[in-house]
Design a protein that fits this description.
Helices cover 56% and strands 16% of the residues. The protein is an alpha+beta fold. The chain folds into 2 domains: 177 residues, no CATH class; 116 residues, no CATH class. Strands 1, 2, 3, 4, 5, 6, 7, 8, 9, 12, 13 and 14 form a 12-stranded mixed β-sheet that branches. The protein has a two-stranded antiparallel sheet with strand order 10-11. A hairpin with a 2-residue loop joins strand 10 and strand 11. Helix 12 packs antiparallel against helix 13. The radius of gyration is 33 Å and the shape is elongated.
């Protein structure tokens, strides 16, 4: 072998530097291809992590039954057949459906005012069972959550979302102090932490908003806070299902039960978070396929560019190749020299492409609002593909150079 690998790389860099414009045009295809792969995988990784975070707030193993909203004239007609969502519905599901291992209920309260001695808030007020927090993956930043005893004792206590706490108690400490909801004074027993979800809906379903809520025991809300005429007793019911049961199968059984109890009236909707996650993954997969095709085309163009520049190098350096053969270089030496040049171009294009891809990911995330998460797998995968494509397209020019007749090469113009 004429030279070790390192001097061959140095020679390749010098050759590239002597044809700056041609090298730049060759590198662009690799840069755009690698950048597209990295941006695609980073955005896909970010979307998947955000989807899991959003689903976690809904509960992956939950089935969510929500009461529908109707105009007053429609509501009068519907109430002839159905009372809407009730605690009796929750009890029926818990006792007749063996796969239901936990449940919670929520009632939205029509609020005229929410204030404390230190501030006011436009927070929404909801009555919930104690199990609501666990099924919605909520945790406290201070104090405690509502308990079953609070519900049984119709206690006048409340847990505040983080934003509501900041508005009602801008000076800090909220636990132990009092807030007034409509006419009812409530003692604050806890403040929720505020996990940033990034979105207020997922696959068309409204989520989040818990930071701007005041939570009170469900029975307290039913007995001490007024409700809208003809409104359902409950607005949301969550049913946690066993790990051994497919959510879509469980959803069919829940739908059948509620149809029987509501006299076929469609005054509720069933949301299956697991199905929403599957739908999101399918959408993301289609996006990834499209982006992979775009990235593949860019890398193909880059590979063709490498082949083009290497063939041009063979023509320009025919005498050099003849001279090397004359002083003892073998065909393998010549082949290895040109493959080293292809490798160098590929690595340089790949590294620049990584920088471009990371920057592109951040730019897309900033202007589109999409979640972006860096993935080392994406970086190494794209660099590996880039090198493989570049070296692959450099093999033919390397073989052609190695097969030149030394005598004819020395006499070429």
């Amino acid at each position: 072998m004429i030279k070790t690998f390192k001097p061959l790389i140095v020679d390749a860099l010098e050759e590239m530097a002597s044809h700056k414009l041609r090298t730049l045009l060759t590198l662009l295809g690799m840069i755009f291809g690698v950048g597209a792969v990295i941006a695609m995988l980073n955005i896909g990784e970010g979307a998947e992590r955000q989807a899991l975070k959003l689903i976690d707030s809904m509960g992956l193993r939950n089935l969510i039954v929500e009461s529908k909203q109707f105009a007053s004239d429609e509501l009068v007609e519907i109430r002839e057949d159905s009372l809407g969502l009730t605690l009796a519905d929750v009890d029926a599901a818990a006792t007749t459906l063996p796969f239901v291992i936990d449940h919670s209920a929520e009632r939205r309260i029509k609020t005229q005012s929410v204030y404390s001695d230190e501030g006011r808030s436009d927070a929404n007020v909801v009555g919930v069972t104690a199990s609501h927090f666990a099924l919605s993956n909520m945790k406290t930043a201070d104090g405690r959550l509502l308990s079953d005893e609070d519900d049984l004792n119709v206690a006048q206590v409340a847990v505040l979302g983080s934003s509501a706490a900041s508005e009602l108690f801008p000076n800090g400490e909220a636990v132990g102090k009092f807030v007034k909801v409509n006419h009812l004074w409530l003692q604050v027993v806890g403040v929720l932490s505020n996990p940033y979800l990034g979105k207020d809906e997922f696959q068309g379903v409204k989520i989040g908003g818990d930071s701007e809520r005041v939570f009170v025991p469900l029975l307290t809300s039913l007995k001490k806070l007024s409700s809208v005429a003809l409104a359902s007793e409950l607005d949301v019911v969550k049913l946690k299902i066993s790990d051994q049961v497919d959510p879509t199968v469980a959803a069919k059984a829940v739908t059948q039960l509620f149809k029987l109890r509501h006299g076929e009236a469609e005054d509720y909707q069933l949301i299956v978070p697991a199905a929403l996650l599957a739908q999101q993954k399918q959408t993301q997969q289609i996006f990834n396929i499209v982006m992979a095709c775009v990235a593949g085309i860019s890398l193909l163009v880059g590979g063709i560019g490498i082949m083009n520049i290497m063939l041009a190098n063979v023509l320009e350096r025919t005498k050099e190749i003849g001279l090397l053969r004359a002083v003892g270089a073998t065909q393998q030496d010549i082949k290895f020299q040109f493959i080293a040049e292809s490798f160098t171009i590929s690595v340089l294009g790949g590294l620049l492409g990584i920088v471009f891809g990371l920057a592109l990911s951040e730019i897309i995330g900033f202007y589109s609002g999409w979640a972006v998460s860096w993935s080392m797998v994406a970086i190494f995968l794209s660099l590996g593909i880039c090198i493989a494509v570049g070296v692959g397209f450099g093999v033919f020019p390397a073989i052609k150079a190695s097969q030149l007749n030394p005598i004819e090469a020395l006499h070429s113009d």
